[in-house]
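Hi F.,

I've been meaning to write this up properly since the lab meeting, where we talked about keeping a consistent format for the predictions we share between groups. The idea is simple: the sequence comes first, exactly as it goes in, then the structure tokens exactly as they come out, then a line or two of notes. No screenshots and no reformatting. I'm using this chain as the first example so we have something concrete to point to.
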Amino acid sequence: MAAAPTAPAQPGEFPPLRGGKLALMTFAIAISSFMEILDMTIVNVSIPSISGSLGVSPSEGTWSVSSYMLAAAVVQPLAGWIGRRFGEVRTFVSSIILFMVFSAICGLATSMPMLITARLMQGFVSGPMMSVAQALLIRNYPVHLRGLALGLWAMVVIVAPVAGPILGGTITDNLSWPWLFYINLPVGALAAAISWWLLRKRESQRVKVPVDIVGLVLLVIGVGSLQFMLDNGNDMDWFASPEIVAAACISFVALAFFIPWELTDPHPVVDLQLFKRRNFVVGSLCVSVGYFAFSGINVVYPLWLQTTLGYTSTWAGYAIAPVGIVALFLAPLIGRNLHRLNLRLVPSIAFCIFATSLYWVSSLPADASFGQLAAPRFVQGMGLALFFLPLNQIIMAGVSSNELASAAGLSNFLRTIFGSMSTAICIFLWNDRTEYHAGTLIQHVSTDSAATAAYQAQLASQGIEGTMSLGAIAQVVYNQASTMGASDVFFMMFILYLAMIPFVWLAKPPFGAAGMGGGGH
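Output, unedited:
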């Protein structure tokens, strides 16, 4: 839908920005989105340092990550309602400013409860930022460049999670962990100032509707309990823990009541009517399942490198980083030509590339070189650029301009939840398969075995004898079992990507969206 050249076509609709102002707006939205996504992963490699500094165990330190994810997941589906109620520009700029405030408090934290509370609030205020950023880009870009806009935005979404561990490790090693949060202050200040200067007179139409208190409470309880279960399931032995069972039951009951309530309430906080649209369902399912597999790989891969192959956190980050290199350059190109592409064929090719790279990784041995480990990630980056953008266009097909933030918020929420599920499930599968393979391999280790005797002789020549040699053999068995367990997880994700290809073709052309202009067929 193209705006008139001199005046808004309707309340909340303005002519597109052009030239320098368009470039500045893109820059501001890009760096704010990068900042928000980066904070999801930048702390991961610094948990030991943070835990030691604040005098808690590393398992307690993981709450500095999970509290942020929990709060962000709760608020993401509300992005559309918040944007309509307060205006998308005000919501976006306020989110950035509050994000800066709580980032500063995180850096100043002197105890783990203080840090967790600040991270929780940081997640709450960041929840609407990503979805509203998408809506602002689409609303203020010329119709023929909206694909490029989403390509640039996708580039940020792709690169930020990869850059997080590398940047986090570098900052922690060379400065100190509070700087993980202090770096948000200048970035946020610049993004907020540019956004307010350019967009304050281009506010979206505000709609004052009654607050759906019941729906809001059910959403917070349901999603909060679900996120708690996913974040802590592995540490608490899943359903052997009363806390995990209670969280699962509370989440199920709350969400079971939430869905019919939202479908019948005249002013729902989450627009579940979007699920009546075939393309929204198909696109969201494909993105969420694809992200499930991608997140699982991104968790297991660096942990395998560090715990089994002896990589440092920095070098593990370098090994996984190539996935972002190709995507960094390819995403804007795909975005610019989105209207020329077959939007069902392109993600099908992406799933094939993902599957190929995972089959490759699943066949790597425990003594693989850095180049062998990094090469499949480089190939995977080609699939990443082809995956996200076409499916995002399918999700937005037929979505009206005033529904953009709602659709983006709901799809981002589903992606986040599937990512959390992936982290929990893939770590569980890896541990389970490692134990299985260790039990199988240890049966072949005996003093009567020629291979065992030969290896002990080799160790003896190096001065490693007795119990030390048995310990060395046990370590070899564990490393091999861990590698085989990781390979099993990679192979499962390979099967999952192949299985998703038919679902892409359930989407129904045309894929042009009211908020995006033309689309591919």
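Notes:
The domain at 277-521 is CATH 1.20.1250.20 (Growth Hormone; Chain: A;).
The chain is about 75% helix and 0% strand.

If this format works for you, I'll send the rest the same way.

G.
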